[in-house]
Amino acid sequence: MVASRAITMVRMQETDLRTPAAGWDIHCHTRFSDGTETPDTLMRQARDIGLHGVAITDHDTWNGWQEAEAASRAYGIPLIRGTEITAHVDHTSVHILGYLYDPHDEDLAAMFQRTRTARFNRVREMVERIHADYPQMTWECVSRQVREGSQTTIGRPHIADALVALGICRDRTEAFSTIIASTNKYYIPVPSPTPLEVTRTVKKAGGAVVVAHAGDRSRNRQLLSDERLEELIDAGLDGIEVYHRGNLPDQRRRLKDIADSHGLIVTGGSDWHGAGKPNPLGENLTSDESVQRLVEGRALPVL
Ligand SMILES: [Zn+2]
Ligand SMILES: [Zn+2]
């Protein structure tokens, strides 16, 4: 009896660490940052695979929203407008998902502008460093990989794509683990706001805040600590992305326990990048109930 109850409990624990079978994919990238597809393609594919809705979350920008809004109406797929915002603390890179905030909020617009300018200057400088050893690698090669011109948030993936186009690297993964790896001499860190600054700014602009893939050991040698997470919770953090391919079971357990004990929303997302990453759309999902809690009372409605 006792043994069978123990088995049931283990099964339950395993089950709640798995993504919901149906729901919303609320972590998706398009050509407006480092994804390879348009917002229109995102919405069409979402309809084709039967998602209940999607969020567009390009890095440090809302430039893709307009196209996504039109596609949401055309395909009848509900849309959450969002952004994945780059932050940094304690030598740890942290990604914050902000949803349904007022894009005209001055502090928020200024924060995005600072990050985008810093990213642009940093990529230019990294390209110059690489050029010194690989003369064929130039700024023009990187520009050719930027699909929406000045509307695109430029980052390391665009350098990777240029290295692949030149035949220096086989694919993005190889580029990220060799030439543009954070341990390599060509690497320059992005000057970023802290997760606490980002959380406060998005909350002030009426948005919902979710910390993305905080248990992904492949991104950081040192993960965002419980203490730092508590700080964000005190500042009004709404949710934690538990269902993400980078969060392995032990980290899913840790993050889910923190979310449950503070009454936070548990979310999931594929981190879809089109052909830019292997993650298929809809690979990880957020339940309808969690989405309902996430979107309630925000500056913008779900479309
Ligand atoms: Zn991310
Ligand atoms: Zn992402």
TrEMBL record:
A Pfam family per the record: PHP
InterPro entries: PHP_dom (IPR004013), PHP_domain (IPR052018), Pol/His_phosphatase_N (IPR003141), Pol/histidinol_Pase-like (IPR016195)
UniProt domain Polymerase/histidinol phosphatase N-terminal: residue ranges: 24-89
GO molecular function: 5'-3' DNA exonuclease activity; 5'-3' RNA exonuclease activity
Protein's recorded name: Phosphatase
Organism: Pseudoscardovia radai
